[in-house]
């Protein structure tokens, strides 16, 4: 049987690639009943909110993907405060701390890709005063209509500076790569794709990066799924009833999110592709403090 997605398997000795380093960016308690169907009350996991440093092999351009958890949790909107009130959330080392520890000044970062605008991914944008922030197009409305102008909003309007933001339009997702029909070839050389990842929150994007010249890739899945068992099909995405009796889900569009999870799961059968969720507790426990974290590099698969 032919290998799936041959475009992901073609080695090229002259192909630029991306070195990917994990960044410590905070720890949070993931309440299973909100994410994993069939979970029992009281089940939870302490998991990371991972961020990443990306380095282009030829230009040496540096990008950060996601900013993790900010220390000042009280700065978040009331709607977020309600969600996190009874959860354990700590940031022993922020993204900016992680960069400095590895020998890099956050002020030297010129590009930050933000997967989406939830509190555990936006970090402290003010620590990156010289960066342009890249987001999916639908994130713009969330910022412009965020808190405090909309008192009920879960997104802080000042979370990311609009004056230094680039929102990728639908017309910019012109590439098809692997199982993903809509992707943006960021450098134009096949080394780094920003992938449209619908369902979780408007504007949600993922990253697919080639990690060497011999056919290895990594897929940074953000919040496409919150547990590896959702990718393997062992478990399903949770729903529950809110205080008003409405059936709700952690994904704003569950149907689209489930379809995207299926696409991400298809990568599990592709040789030499590493799929990494933002809140992958198992991977974190196996790798924390090791060479996968900056200034080290996640080894190509």
Secondary-structure topology with pairs:
Elements: E1 18-23, E2 27-31, E3 44-48, E4 51-56, E5 62-65, H1 78-84, E6 89-90, H2 95-101, E7 111-113, H3 119-122, E8 132-136, H4 139-144, E9 165-168, E10 175-177, E11 180-185, E12 192-196, E13 205-210, E14 217-220, H5 228-232, E15 240-241, E16 247-248, H6 254-266, E17 273-276, H7 281-287
Parallel strand pairs: 5-7, 7-8, 8-9, 14-17
Antiparallel strand pairs: 1-4, 2-3, 2-6, 4-5, 10-11, 11-12, 12-13, 13-14, 15-16
Protein name: Metallo-beta-lactamase domain-containing protein
Family: Belongs to the metallo-beta-lactamase superfamily.
Domain Metallo-beta-lactamase: 48-279
Put simply, the count of helices is: 7
Oligomer: single chain
- Return the structural class: alpha+beta
Within CATH, the superfamily carries the name Ribonuclease Z/Hydroxyacylglutathione hydrolase-like
Give the CA-CA distance, first to last residue.
22 Å
Number of DSSP strand runs: 17
Strand/helix succession = EEEEEHEHEHEHEEEEEEHEEHEH
**Residue-averaged pLDDT:** 95
Organism: Ganoderma sinense ZZ0214-1
GO molecular function, one term: metal ion binding
Domain Metallo-beta-lactamase: 48-279
Protein name: Metallo-beta-lactamase domain-containing protein
């Amino acid at each position: 049987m032919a290998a799936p997605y041959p475009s992901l398997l073609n080695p090229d000795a002259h192909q630029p690639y991306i070195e990917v380093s994990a960044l410590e960016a905070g720890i949070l308690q993931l309440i299973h009943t909100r994410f994993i169907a069939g979970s029992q009350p009281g089940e939870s996991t302490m998991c990371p909110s991972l961020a990443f440093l990306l380095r282009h092999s030829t230009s040496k351009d540096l990008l950060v993907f996601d900013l993790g958890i900010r220390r000042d949790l009280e700065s978040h909107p009331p709607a977020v405060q309600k969600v996190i009130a009874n959860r354990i959330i700590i940031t022993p080392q922020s993204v900016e701390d992680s960069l400095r520890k590895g020998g890099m000044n956050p002020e030297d970062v010129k590009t930050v890709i933000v997967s989406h605008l939830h509190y555990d991914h936006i970090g402290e944008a003010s620590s990156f005063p010289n960066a342009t922030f890249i987001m999916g197009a639908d994130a713009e409305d969330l910022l412009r209509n965020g808190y405090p102008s909309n008192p009920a909003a879960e997104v802080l309007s000042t979370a990311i500076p609009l004056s230094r933001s680039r929102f990728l339009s639908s017309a910019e997702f012109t590439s098809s790569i692997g199982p993903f029909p809509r992707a943006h070839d960021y450098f134009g050389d096949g080394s780094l794709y920003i992938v449209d990842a619908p369902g979780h929150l408007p504007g949600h994007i993922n990253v697919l990066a080639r990690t060497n010249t011999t056919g290895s890739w990594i897929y940074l899945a953000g919040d496409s799924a919150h547990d590896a068992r959702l990718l393997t099909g062992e478990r399903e995405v949770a729903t529950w009833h809110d205080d008003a009796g409405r059936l709700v889900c952690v994904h704003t569009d569950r149907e689209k999110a489930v379809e995207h999870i299926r696409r991400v799961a298809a990568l599990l059968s592709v040789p030499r592709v590493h799929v990494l969720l933002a809140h992958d507790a198992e991977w974190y426990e196996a790798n924390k403090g090791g060479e996968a974290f900056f200034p080290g590099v996640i080894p190509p698969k």
